[in-house]
Amino acid sequence: MKRQAAIMDFFAKYGIVVVLIALVVFFSIISPQFLKMNNIFNILRQVAIVGIASVGMTMVLLTGGIDLTAGSVIGVGSVLTAALILAGMPTVPAVIVVLLISAGIGMINGFFINAMNIPPLITTLGLMTSLRGVAYLITGGLPIFGFKSGITALGKGYFLGIPLPVVLMAGVFLVGILFLEKTRYGRYIYGVGGNEEASILSGINVKQVRYIVYSISGMLCGLAGIVLLARINSGQPNAGTGYEMDIITAVVLGGVSISGGEGRLPLVVIGVLIMGVLTNGMILMNIQEYVQWVVKGLVLVAAVGFDRFTETRKAQLA
User: Fold this and answer.
1) In a domain, 3, yes or no
2) Which CA distances in Å does 297 have to 98, 219, 312?
């Protein structure tokens, strides 16, 4: 029984590595363009936005919560940065302001969840819709473009031959891993998701932990929005639409339990890469965008289903 539980645990943690390798082999056979360096860099640039936001989403899910505002915050961060720069604000102050506002949005999520006792799903679903409206109010429903800023270098530049968005994503993942695995608050996050009642009895300020994780999630989504702006060089009112699904799928694929308390950021990197490889491969195969939506939705359902299955089996075999 213990051996079966160990096998289930191994596949739950590392099965996605096998999936990633299988996808790479499959698409490289189907399309000779897939393994070319330009396409690999293209995949890495594409996943950078989802990857940056997935670090914050991981922390939220580890506490047993969820943040559906991710895509809308990415959109608001993108158009607000564009609007501030177009209004004449220097790039660096504009970026700082947007990151602080994005963190503030996360604090608002935390407030409704903590103070009003509204479930995270309902809170973030409501704010997701409201923030999408805010993005359209900022832009007037029209793209913001024509501003002169060095911010485009963030989306198209290189550092030691590596695209800058990828370098930024790697830095965010590194800081996130150190925060979760080496700090007191990292342990608190796992504790709150694993057993909230025990965490309270241990003296952990659960509400403070929620404020922290939702603020981090908001700030990183704002950063992802800035990277998106740098890539397309215009603030689009619909920017970030649907990104929350890709982010959540990547995190759950990476082995983070939707029940909270279980999962590690290094494997979330694999989940992010799977989403990027899957999307890029389907584009190379000329698969319609609508079909891609169907596939991504099924991947999310399959990932959550596998998470539930492995948890049930481990409980039975324990």
Assistant:
1) no
2) 31, 26, 23
CATH number for the domain spanning 100: value is 1.10.3470
How much is the pTM? 0.90
The answer to the question of residue 250 being in a domain is: yes
Q: How many CB atoms lie within 10 A of CB 13?
A: 16
- Give the chain's domain count: 1
Task: List per-block mean pLDDT (blocks of 10 residues) for the chain, which spans 318 residues.
Answer: 62 74 89 88 91 97 95 96 91 95 97 94 95 93 80 82 92 96 94 90 92 97 95 89 91 86 89 90 86 83 72 60
Write down the H helix ranges in the chain: 2-30, 37-62, 70-86, 91-114, 120-139, 152-156, 164-182, 184-194, 196-201, 206-232, 243-253, 265-284, 289-317
CA distances from 138 to 22, 135, 144, 161, 195 (A): 43, 5, 9, 36, 41
Of the CA atoms within 13 Å of residue 291, those in its CB half-sphere come to 8
Q: Domain span at residue 77?
A: 15-317
The answer to whether position 264 is within a domain reads yes
